């Protein structure tokens, strides 16, 4: 059962189109896995549409849109094209990481995903979204894998796609949306292995043991 969800503010920003691609993708994936947030987004979308179209027709055309008849014809052609595939009907992609097969959420279908690389039980593949300092990865943690204890210089979003993991704050199951910042310190560990989508805006800061030696290289490896 999914226990951790995006905040209502994030869902509203998602519907309004105000989020960067990485966070929007994460919420789209979470929504694919979470009926509760799917219904919340549908309701917010319906409310937004009702607010827009409650304006008078003249006011709507003048204040909100500048759409030519050619543009309206193009939109009509697109929406009536039966050859277009709904996202819910699109085939799911699969990936293999260290002899483990995983089906990816449909929201990742159109994104460029690099090859996995890593050391020991942690492997990552960068998702190319072109967001500069905000980095998005698929992260695989092999059975009994662990990320050394760390805190965050920026924010860190972890969306669990498959398997389970736990840290100082609890145990997580597929669909959980965990957003942390510099006020949090944890050491994620997975007994059975897991696959996550991660989004970070800055380097992790390791806080315990020999892993602290990596901090000077943090900008190069996050």
Describe this structure in words.
By secondary structure, this protein is of the alpha+beta class. It folds into 2 domains: 8-89, no CATH class; 94-221, Jelly Rolls, CATH 2.60.120. It is built from 6 helices and 15 strands. The chain has helices at 8-16, 21-33, 35-53, 57-64, 69-79, 218-221, and strands at 94-97, 100-103, 112-113, 117-119, 122-128, 135-141, 145-146, 150-152, 156-163, 165-167, 170-172, 177-180, 189-190, 194-200, 204-206. Strands 3, 4, 5, 6, 9, 12 and 14 form a 7-stranded antiparallel beta sheet that branches. Strands 1-2 form a two-stranded antiparallel ribbon. Strands 7-13 form a two-stranded antiparallel sheet. Strand 4 and strand 5 (122-128) form a beta hairpin. Helix 1 (8-16) packs across helix 3. The radius of gyration is 20 Å and the shape is globular. It starts with 7 loop residues before the first helix and ends with a helix. 26% of the residues are buried.
Number of helices: 6
Report the biggest beta sheet as strand number plus sense, adding barrel if it closes. 7 strands, antiparallel
| Distance between the first and last residues' Cα | 30 Å
Which stretches of 5+ consecutive residues score pLDDT under 50? Answer: none
Indicate the CATH architecture of the largest domain. Sandwich
The total count of strands amounts to 15
């Amino acid at each position: 059962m999914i226990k951790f969800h995006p905040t209502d503010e994030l869902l509203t920003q998602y519907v309004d189109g105000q989020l960067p691609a990485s966070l929007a993708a994460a919420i789209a994936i979470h929504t694919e896995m979470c009926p509760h947030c799917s219904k919340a987004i549908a309701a917010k979308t319906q409310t937004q549409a009702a607010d827009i179209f409650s304006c008078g027709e003249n006011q709507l055309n003048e204040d909100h849109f500048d759409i030519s008849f050619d543009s309206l014809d193009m939109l009509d052609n697109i929406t009536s094209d039966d050859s277009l595939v709904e996202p819910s009907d699109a085939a799911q992609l699969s990936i293999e990481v260290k002899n483990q097969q995983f089906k990816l959420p449909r929201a990742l279908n159109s994104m460029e995903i690099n090859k996995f690389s890593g050391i020991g039980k942690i492997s990552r593949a960068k998702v190319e979204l072109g967001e500069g300092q905000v980095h998005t990865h698929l992260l695989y943690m092999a059975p009994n894998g662990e990320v050394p204890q760390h805190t965050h210089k920026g924010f860190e979003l972890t969306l669990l796609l498959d398997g389970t993991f736990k840290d100082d704050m609890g145990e997580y199951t597929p669909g959980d949306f965990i957003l942390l910042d510099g006020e949090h310190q944890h050491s994620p560990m997975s007994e059975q292995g897991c696959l996550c989508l991660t989004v970070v805006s800055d380097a992790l800061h390791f806080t315990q043991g020999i892993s602290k030696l990596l901090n000077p290289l943090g900008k190069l490896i996050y």
